[in-house]
Amino acid sequence: MRSFFAHIPKELWRSYQWQIQSRIKTKEELKRFINLRKEEEEGIDKTAGKYPMAITPYYLSLIDPKDPKDPIRLQAIPRAVEVDEEIQAHGEEDPFREEGEIPGLTHRYPDRVLFTLTSFCAVYCRHCMRKRIFQEGERARTKEEIDQFLDYLRGREEVREVILSGGEPLSVSKEKLQYILSKIREIPHVEIIRIATRLPVLAPQRFFDEDLLDLLEKHSPIWINTHFNHPKEITQESAEAIEKLLRRGIPVNNQTVLLKGINDNPETMLELMRGLLRIKVRPVYLFHCDPIKGAIHFRTNIEKGIQIMEYLRGRIGGMGIPIYALDLPGGKGKVPISSNYLIHQEGSKYIFRSPFGDKVEYYVEVF
Ligand SMILES: *Cc1c(COP(=O)(O)O)cnc(C)c1O
Ligand code: SF4
Asked: Which CATH architecture has domain 90-334?
């Protein structure tokens, strides 16, 4: 696919603004690059106004146009199944009750608050857990809304970490970002700022901007959580973006979502985790796919996730093994789903199952 863009000068291709301005948002534009399948053409028509489409040239260039099951294609191009009656009858728009009194703010754990800065994304991922927010159109929080959030934050001394999320928090102007980061930094009880951004995957060019990197570095400690789902997303450009962040002292962690037909296979997941370690991104979570209206077709059962986790154990170092977790409905919090390696206990004798399938006795006497 990259060959379609071979005529684009390097400076443009490496410009985030160009990537955003050149996003493919209509069926007609997309058809110039790729032979759409019937369910995709229908998907684009039927999801219009409900679940918008936008694809950066960069992300589009990763698709193998000959492969109808290409994992980038499945994440980016709408399919009719999203609005299928049966799919629509399941799941909820906001199963976690994120919407509260202050626009964009969710305060679920005492020490962490989450604030969504935009309803804009570089690419609208078809599996997005916040699909609901893109119906209102693309916008960033106003200064008034940000001030309302900051006021709330000032009054909550138990909060140590602010999570800026979206949409895409790093799509706001540098002026707005400077404003919000510097105001958060004036609040003494906030220790950590976490930015949940998928730009390293969807438009890594964002991080080729030294002014943005200056701004992030200046407000340290900032941690980035990103969202790689498939080894194909690990490219020279995404690796370059990560390298630039790391050089500025910004650690990058990853959250993957377990998605049917995209990464629900042990080999793919192992390859993804190995790829992440190669570019020095630490995989933190593998999330079970949430019950989101319009994205239910991406769900697998929980056994699949456990099987993948067991496959990883023993095949990659501990740094490359994320925590498999799910978000409980009603905003009850995230919980790890763990396989049991301790299979029996009797007094001081414990029996474990090894990563290689052996049964091993282990004795603990505590004095
Ligand atoms: C996921 C989430 C967090 C962060 O949880 P971690 O386990 O720290 O990643 C915080 N607040 C809300 C509302 C969340 O949904
Ligand atoms: S980048 Fe994140 S918030 Fe935006 S559409 Fe994709 S998953 Fe949703």
From this structure: Alpha-Beta Barrel (3.20)
Share of the chain above pLDDT 70, in %: 100
The single-letter code of the amino acid at 360 is V
Give me the mean pLDDT over the 340-356 stretch.
95
In the chain, ranges of CATH 3.20.20.70 domains: 90-334
Q: What is the mean pLDDT of residues 95-114?
A: 93
* Cα(162) to centroid(ligand 1), Å: 10
Nearest ligand to the CA atom of 289: 2
Say how many Å lie between the CA of residue 325 and the centre of ligand 1: 11
Contact between 84 and 299 under an 8 Å Cβ cutoff? The reply is: no
- Is the shortest distance between the CB of 169 and ligand 2 below 6 Å? no
**Ligand 1 contact via 109 beta carbon (within 6 Å):** yes
Q: Which atom of ligand 2 is nearest to the CA of 198?
A: 1
Catalogue the active-site residues: 108-109, 112, 121, 125, 128, 130, 290, 327, 334
CB 166 near ligand 2, within 6 Å: yes
Structure tokens at 329: 């409905």
Distance of CA 275 to the CA centre of its chain: 16
In Å, how far are 17, 29, 205, 210, 348 from 56, measured between CA atoms?
Answer: 10, 12, 11, 21, 58
Q: What angle do CA 27, 29, 33 make, to 5 degrees?
A: 105
For 170-188, what is the mean pLDDT? 98
**Which has the closest alpha carbon to 312: 358, 271, 349?**
271
- Does the model's pTM come out above 0.85? yes
Mean pLDDT, rounded, for 134-147: 94
The residue whose CA has the least distance to atom 3 of ligand 2 is 167
